[in-house]
Design a protein that fits this description.
101 residues, alpha+beta, two-stranded antiparallel ribbon, 3 helices, 20% strand, elongated
């Protein structure tokens, strides 16, 4: 997802975020390099005052994916800030995530 920061100002930049791709590659690396996982702790952080994201939605999205691939590991997820959107509007809310997670 592309996002323009400081539009109309000399400091304006457009960043092309590929958070989902980056996260998927990191998960793949973890699973390829750590074969006998017993415990996996996933942590999603909330936004800071400058963030456009709404909390730890990315890790909520990825937790099921990781659990399905981590064998018998005990996978736990900690989200420090989230609106808890798990319903009919879940996909639409995720599409508003500027980081592409």
């Amino acid at each position: 997802r592309s996002y323009t920061y400081d539009a109309g100002h000399p400091t304006c930049i457009t960043a092309h975020h590929h958070g989902g791709v980056n996260t998927g590659l990191a998960i793949h690396w973890m699973l390829e390099n750590f074969h006998d996982l017993d415990q996996v702790l996933l942590v999603g952080t909330g936004p800071n005052s400058d963030s456009m994201a709404d909390g730890g939605h990315g890790i909520a999205f990825w937790s099921t994916y990781i659990k399905k691939r981590a064998g018998d590991a005990n996978v736990r997820t900690v989200i420090d800030s989230s609106m808890g959107l798990f319903g009919p509007g879940w996909r639409e809310a995720m599409m508003m995530d500027p980081w592409g997670t």
